[in-house]
Specification:
Layout lengths: L1 H37 L2 E4 L10 H11 L9 E7 L8 E6 L3
Antiparallel strand pairs: 1-3, 2-3
Length: about 100
C-alpha cells in the first residue's frame, strides 16, 4: 500500500515537472522569436531632440558621422520613445535589412 502511494506521488510530481519544462520551453521559443523580430531595430540615446525635426534625418546624419551610409529607403520606420517628463527621448529605428 505504501509502495503504491509513493508511486502515485512520484507520478504526480513527474507530471508536474514535465508541465513546468513544457512551459519553460515555450517561453524560450517566444524569447527567441522576439529577439529575431528585433534584430532589424536599433535604439539610439543621447541625441538632443531640438537638433532635428525628423527622426529619419537624424538616423541618416548619424550614419554619415559614423561613415556608414544609410539611405532613406533602408529605413522601415523610426520614431521617438517617450521615457517620461524629465528624461531625454530616445530614438528607435527599424531597418529594412540588417
Amino acid at each position: 500500500m505504501l509502495k503504491k502511494t509513493l508511486n502515485e506521488v512520484l507520478k504526480k510530481t513527474l507530471s508536474s515537472l514535465k508541465a513546468k519544462v513544457g512551459i519553460q520551453e515555450r517561453f524560450g521559443q517566444q524569447d527567441h522569436l522576439e529577439r529575431y523580430t528585433r534584430k532589424h531595430s536599433l535604439e539610439i540615446h543621447g541625441i538632443p531632440e531640438k537638433l532635428y525635426k525628423s527622426t529619419d534625418d537624424v538616423i541618416i546624419k548619424l550614419g554619415e558621422r559614423l561613415d556608414v551610409p544609410i539611405a532613406k529607403e533602408e529605413i522601415d520606420i523610426s520614431h521617438k520613445l517617450y521615457n517620461g517628463k524629465n528624461h531625454p527621448k530616445s530614438t528607435v529605428v527599424k531597418f529594412i535589412n540588417y
